[in-house]
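Lab notes, practical 5.
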Amino acid sequence: MDDARRVSHTLTFSGKNVDAVLADYVESLTYTDVASGSSDTLSITLQNIDGNWMGKWYPKKGSTVGGKLVFENWSEGGGTKSLSCGTFTMDEIRIRMKPKTAEFSCLSSPAKESFKTRERNKTWEKITIRGIAKEICGRYGLSLDYSGPSIMIDKLEQSDNDSSFLSRLCDEYGLGMKIYRRKIVVYDVIEIERKKAVATLSLSSFTDASFTDGIYGTYTGARVSYKAADDDEEISIFVGTKGEGADGSRVMKVNSTCSSEAEARRKGAAQVNKSNMKATTMSATMFPDPKICAGVCVRLSEEFGKLAGKYFVDKVTWDIGRSATTQKVEAHKVKKKVVP
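Output from the prediction step:
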């Protein structure tokens, strides 16, 4: 009886399962799962010796592709686990002659190109970030999963596409954003990093790992100078984890337009916390584990010495070939947060 662990995948094109059709064609599949800031991606490489993929089977750009990873014999007794990759839009088709392959690149963003391309001039007034996100979702047939705080926007001008605008807005206020399974997901980064680690990893969990630990770009607080939208008077406030003049204090200078001190504090805290994510980072290749996906926390055991502790997973890339599967992880160490 073959009880070896293995990772496979299942695919749908336009809602129809195509595993049987593609069984002899799929050379590799790469799924990239991102916590925030960019779209998840799915890349499928198929052999094209018979030329079908540039003829009768040539797919339609903009069609939907669904994916799921299947982990067989993953627990005692031969248990099976699965990890949904979500629903994607076929964005790009590449046909190669040597070797004869077809590669389909798919994005988790909506099929409507205007989400990323149409520049929109709009003035948003007296509305929450949740309200803005909900209106944008409505334009593209997406649902909204919002778990962040209620943040009121007094007045804001939009002059770019909805994708860039909403992503930048969330980033400015310390919120994460991603598109997954036809939903826009918005969450409070601080609250996500407070969650319990899903696993404790040891040296034996990895086949390779590298760490970067630096001081440049890391701060204990921010001095925020701001003006209200219709006022020339400059106001200055401080937000931080220790006193502005305390030993070891490193203060970021922030200039912004804010309607209140609360908004200035939130923006200052968000910029410091974002910069501090680069303080200690990890890039690693590990033995496949379906629990480790973007947006969760893991803990590195005491075997890692000064690098031990809690890490937030920013990005996971699964490479599934005919004979091997690799899981690459990018993460940052969770540091003390500046609270608005």
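Observations recorded by the TA: The two ends are 58 Å apart (CA to CA). The chain is about 15% helix and 45% strand.
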